[in-house]
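Hello support,

Our group uses your service weekly, and this is the first time we've seen a run hang past the timeout. The protein is Polysaccharide pyruvyl transferase domain-containing protein. I'm not sure whether the cause is the sequence or the server load. Input pasted verbatim:
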Amino acid sequence: MKQIFYFGHCWADNVGNAFIDYGINYSLKEALKEYDVQVNNVSNVQPYNNYKFNQKFPYNLLSGGRKKKEDIFDLRMHTKPDLVVLGGSLFDVFWCKVHDLFLNWLIEKQYPVLVLGGGGGNDYSLEELAFVSAYWKKINFIGYIARDEKAFANFGKYAKIAYSGIDNAFFLNNAFNTVKLDIEPYVINTFDLTYPRVVKDGSKKIIKISHRLLDIDSFRLFLKRRFKAFKTVSTYDYVSDYPDDYLNLYANSYVTHSDRVHACVATLIFGGKTQYYDKSDRSYLFDRVNLSEIRNKPVSLDMDFIEKEKQSQLEAIRKIFNQIC
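Update from on-call engineer: The timeout came from a worker crash unrelated to the input. Re-ran successfully.
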């Protein structure tokens, strides 16, 4: 039996990461259902703590100084995968710095790596591309399924097989069964990254939610923006540590207004309308599915189009996996 290890998660920082995880787990199991495989999940969270308290000032001083590399524990590096799967936006300088030990472990061990439905950069500067490529040129990068054309053009050249695909969260309607909620027609406001706002839709009820569970008890926000942080957090109608709660809310929303790309993707894939309010490079995933207008007005998804894209992506996963069989 082939052992596939998916390293992802980090839900408390952004519950939208769970939507990626749900989609990845579904698509791996669906694409490889005819193969003798086991899909295992390990979280990426601890390396962020290691980086903060060992590298960043003043955290490293307050925590008693830096640990030696050999004293840092990373569960991922105690596995023996036949295939490593990574998702999300990991081709940027910060991600590589946080996961430096892990990336060098992949280089040393030469385990085959599939980056699935993500892999975007942060600003696509020449400096970022040079820093990131220094790792990925040495990794056994057998497959890359991008979620937007810009990421595909910049990073697909490092993989043995590259495919211009879609975001993993477009598999949510396959991975999760929603329930009907007993709530009057409502719109959702999810704004975590840009300035606080309220977007109305007639007289419909507004439900304000956050993707960042850490904002509820954030020492950093308390020090930097005491009253603004408390005021913002107190305006949320709902925050949960369970992704399914968000999916049920998005699936039943009349319209979702958000600066979180995966709040929009979740709403779209369950048949709803949504508008996106930011300029992040992460949003190129909407252009990949013909939704450039999402930045200007509420839009809905062409479900026939997306189903064809999903089937093509499952076939691409099988083609990449066949390299290790």
